[in-house]
Amino acid sequence: MSVVRSVVLSSIERYVTFGVTFVSTVVISRILDPAEIGQFSLAMVVYGLAMTVKEMGVSAYLVRSAELTPKVLRAAFGISLSACLSIALILNALASFVGDVYSSPVVAEMVRICSLNLCIVPFGAVSYALLQRQMRFAALAWAGILSSIAGAAVSISLAYAGLGARSLAWGCVALTFCSVVVTLICAKGPRFFRPSLSGARELLSFGGKSSGMAIIWEISNRVPESLLGLISDLSSVGLLSRAMGLVTNVNDLAQRGLLPVVLPHFSKIIRSGEDVTKAYLHLTTIVTGFVWALFGCLISLAEPVTLLLFGERWLGIVLPMQILALQFAAGALIGFQYQLTIVKNVLGRLLISSSIMLLLRIAFIYIGSRYGVVGACLGLLAAVMCAFPVGRLIVYRHIGVTLSDYLRIAWRCLPVFLAALLGAWIGREAGLRLQPESMVLQVLLGGLAGLLGAVMMAMATDHPGWIEGKRILSRLRNAKGS
After folding, report:
1. Structural domains of the chain, count
2. Residues 250-269: pLDDT tens digits?
3. Beta carbons within 8 Å of 270's beta carbon, 6+ residues apart
């Protein structure tokens, strides 16, 4: 399957999933209050950390390996099954302690509910990785779409029934179960393997580094809510969670369809002997331009977007959302480093760099959280800016990039960001003058004007994203003509 077709199929799945999740988030935000959202966020701190090691790097290993044998597949299933069941038991044992830490029995109950996912995941882990390796993104699309619908339906139904934050936990279980079932249905060849640990040494060596990275990322993602929950109150956690969730959704909008394809694509380039670093920098420039355009629009439209989606009681997320948009924009520059270090076999260097960054992130967020939600977000922004000097010292020379490469990418994308920011502000002001009470009109006009400004600037500056877009459209027209 070609890269373009893979990206298209993956994009269909990711954007439909995004739409379902987005609608579900909006509906549930109208039912549950910030404190209940905060309870779920705190449960996800513990559960999310557990899920990072659920496969011990099995999927990434199976995707990148040059050759797979039945022995390797059995070892992969054995490792995944052992790890998941062990972690499920640990979660149940720690649930009461977690509830006591946050003085919330509901948090403990949700940790126990979410642990059920770990009893389900292993049975689809190997088949899912093989579908990725084979680049069968149509099958993966069905699994993602159907599971997201199932999870959203269960969460919304139970929230309406009055289960509060627990509805979100049961929605996670429904999503996982549906995903595994559809994956097994779509898989070709053996679907179940006899679990074994024979020959697992190489897989565990790779999986240890991969799981280490996953743990660090998950802790990094959960630290803001966790520290804020200890220093402040549940309402503050709910506000931060909702602001971060919305910004994350915008970030995913730009990258959802691409992320599952990047590692298989880079692996293919390495196997063919081509320059993967050049492809990495080119891809980063294209994606960063798109991401910065979206965040430019979001910064200008933060207030009407919040009023439109969540209502007046969530206005406290406007400034945090704008700060987080800047943080995610900076992070887009290094968004594909993980995949590059895997194919260049220097994941250990990234693990060291990320460990240092985690300590800096905790320090900045701890200091910022003392000043509330806005302070925590400023801490996140300060932390991501430290990633570049730290990466320069530890990672960059091992993957063939320099700090100047990232500065050049930022310089190429800055005009696009500013054009989107200004265009969205002009469009919002136009909507405000036409119908002051219509948030829909402000968001619609602002979004259209912002994206139009970004496209015109990309065209004027010959941004690689514009050039690649023209190339893809030309191929599509030629395909139709033939």
Report:
1. 2
2. 887 777 667 777 877 787 78
3. 276, 343, 344
